[in-house]
Amino acid sequence: xxxxxxxxxxxxxxxxxxxxxxxxxxxxxxxxxxxxxxxxxxxxxxxxxxxxxxxxxxxxxxxxxxxxxxxxxxxxxxxxxxxxxxxxxxxxxxxxxxxxxxxxxxxx
Length: 108
Fold this sequence. Notes:
Layout: E1 2-5, E2 8-13, E3 16-22, H1 23-26, E4 38-43, E5 47-53, E6 77-80, E7 90-92, H2 94-101, E8 103-104
Parallel strand pairs: 3-5
Antiparallel strand pairs: 1-2, 2-3, 4-5, 5-8, 6-7
């Protein structure tokens, strides 16, 4: 469930709440209302958050090609890859997003 807590959207799962980050907002894409949002939970040893994504491609082995700083260097982009169907998705820096937006985990 997505809820509002202290004025901020959070994703609630099994009693735990995670701050929500919409990738479309980070990359400046138009917000399109969706009935069902797709969420990926990401965390490291200290922080966690819920990334709202447009779609899941699945799991596959890829080769990441870095981008020249002169061509394209937005925040949180580490490179690109080419899929078998010819599409070229960007590879995002999940740890960078987590470090800037994640909530510290409560250690019990």
